[in-house]
Amino acid sequence: MNNLNDLNSLERIKANDPGGMLDALWKMPEQCEEALAIGRKTEIPSKYGSVSNIVVTGLGGSAIGGDFLRLYVTDKAGIPVIVNRDYNLPAFVDSKTLLFAVSYSGNTEETLSAYAQAREKGARIVALTNGGKLRQLAEGDGYPVIVVPAGISPRAATGYLLIPTLAVLEKLGLISGLAVELEELTRILRSLREQMQPEAPVEQNTAKQIAARFYGKIPVIWGVGGSTEVVAMRWKGQVNENGKAPAYWNIFPELNHNEIVGFEEPTALLGQLEIVLLRDTDDHPRVQKRMDISKDIIKGVVSGITEVRSQGEGRLSRLFSLTYIGDYVSVYLAALYGIDPTPVRNIDYLKQKLAES
Length: 357
Ligand code: PA5
Description:
With about 350 residues, the chain is α/β, with parallel strands linked by helices. The protein has two domains: about 5-20 and about 190-335, Rossmann fold, CATH 3.40.50.10490; about 25-175, Glucose-6-phosphate isomerase like protein, domain 1 (Rossmann fold), CATH 3.40.50. The protein has helices spanning about 10-15, 20-25, 30-40, 65-75, 110-120, 130-140, 160-170, 180-195, 205-215, 230-240, 265-270, 285-300, 315-335, 345-355, and strands at about 55, 80-85, 95-105, 125-130, 145, 220-225, 250, 275-280, 305-310. The strands form two sheets. It has a five-stranded parallel sheet, with helices on both faces. A four-stranded parallel sheet has the order 7-6-8-9. Helix 4 links the parallel strand 1 (about 55) and strand 2. Helix 8 packs parallel to helix 13. The radius of gyration is 20 Å and the shape is globular. The relative contact order is 0.15.
């Protein structure tokens, strides 16, 4: 599909999505509700009580939930949280660390390596997976294992890969009020999906409109450090994995000290950049000002600038609403390129080659 009018053809959009990415997106509010129930029924040993730090270890679609957790918990719990996307764990991990090992497939080698190190260090481990080696190992080692349903891509399982970890933190008394946050979140997602569903025509569908702007261009997503940074990275990753296209991201205010200078040359390539500004009511007022000035600097140089605003009061709703829009954009971009969003051939190839060696 490469005619923008085709985004109004339901038949063609669906034919382009045999793996059911749109269906998984539609079901995200229900996934979040189910994920809360799954997390709440997880038995957490009492010795997991007072922890001094939290580490989430995982990669790709299984790591992004950790980033949400980090931003959400940083506001609420007085302990540091880091997301580890590596084979090795930081040296500070010890018996006072609560460590979530997250892998949807359960077979990602970096996560299995980090899990083994966490076990050696005596960390309080919780595994979150659909199965694979991680489930086998963690069950064998006697750690709590949260098992989430199979059948979707890890990047379409963000609810499953985030919310149970928050439920565990609530059980441990590190956060509270999760049900209220989730009630707002699912309400907003339900309203957004009505506006962004394939049946909604381009003229009324923000996600289809942004996908049309991305088509044939290089998306550059700008978020804000400590808040929408995670969403910017997620939008970029979704354009890569679902749209099979390049995209880049950066954050304010850092980009005002380097990237913003790079808008003079090469003019032909700069004209191919499609910029997205992710805006949140909670952004520092000086950062909001920086975004406005930056927009002025680059307008007329880049192909276009789109501003997307978060929705809701709670931090979870604000971050997740922006994420949800980007997820839909990436699937419509895949439709425009005539590509099935689900398979990730290059990731599979890498994993296979690494397994052979
Ligand atoms: O979205 C994807 O398919 C990837 O980003 C995977 O999440 C990543 O390769 C890690 O795999 P897993 O989530 O199974 O640990």
